Fold:
Amino acid sequence: MAIGDIRGVPNQYTLILGGEDRSGETTSCAIGKSGKSAQTFAEFRAGGAKSLKATVLQNFASGSIWTIATTPSLIGSAVTGMFLPQGSASGRPKFAVTATVSAPASDEFVGGEGGEATADSPTIDVEWQLVGDWAQSTI
Structure:
């Protein structure tokens, strides 16, 4: 099988959490090595702990990623999701994950720099540890 050239495939990131498309709340997303310093021996042997990292808008609506990440009773709960780095077109890769909710990785949870009414919305960074590894397939 020839390796295809994926350059030119536009950034069509789609993040689905809890069965809902969260693309409208997300400005960046990546799955990769975790930033956590304490890893179990099993995590280390498996190549280290993995996490879902995202920058999301401060959206105060019920059920938003911001609300999930800042609600104490939801910290530590598991959320399932899919990251589709090339969008949801047929034949594109998808990465299914289960992640453990944690508080924002940002120093600031609410607010940010002021500016014009047209300025970018404030964001927070989240890093949620994966339970196990991701499962890659295509849609």
Remarks:
- Residues 66 and 75 are 12 Å apart (CA to CA).
